[in-house]
Every structure is written in C-alpha cells, then in structure tokens.
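Q: Got a minute? One more chain.
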Amino acid sequence: QVQLVESGGGLVQAGGSLRLSCAASGSIFSINAMGWYRQNPGKQREMVAVISSSGGTNYTDPVKGRFTISRDNAKNTVYLQMNSLKPEDTAVYYCNGLVRVITFPTVSAVEVWGQGTLVTVTS
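A: Always. Here it is, folded:
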C-alpha cells in the first residue's frame, strides 16, 4: 500500500508565496511521473504541473513563470513552489503519483492520489 501526504497549504494574500510538499510512503519500488492538480467545487480537477522521473516538467499555461515543480527522488517527495499567487489560484491542490509498488513476487504500477490541501489566496 502506498500513501501520498500533502502539506503546506494555507491562506495567503495575493502576490505571496506558498510551497507545497507531497511525500510518498509504503512499499515503493520506484515512482514515475508525479504531479500537482487542483480543483474547485463544481469544477473538474485540472493539471497544474507534472514532473517525470528524469526531471522533465510541464505546466498549465496560467501558472507558467510563477510555479515551479521539483522532486527529491531519494525522499520520494515532490514540491510545488508557488509565487506571485493570485485569487484564481485558490483551490484544493492534490498530489498525484504513478508508483511502482512491491507486490511480492512482482511489481505493480498504480496511480495514487493524496488527500488534498487547501490553498486560499485573498485579494
């Protein structure tokens, strides 16, 4: 079993910064892509940023130049540095990972989601 646990959300004024962290734990063999998604009530969950196991990144256009995704493979952790925050960035942010899990005697690939962390940006 694998868990993703997010931290770092909170309340911030427009123009401020927050750093989200997401740590994976469990019977992990390796982690392929990891990413951050966000969702508001009544809306679809959208991709914010993703990072491959080799460090390649992709961002949704509204956050380009303001957000930076990174990962520490030794710690099985992914980060999202959010700068110049805007009220429209307000959402619940979810961590996602494509994890290769040890299921003896084999390894299985599973997609795992964190529980979400709320980011609120006030004007």
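A: The two ends are 41 Å apart (CA to CA).
Q: Perfect, thanks.
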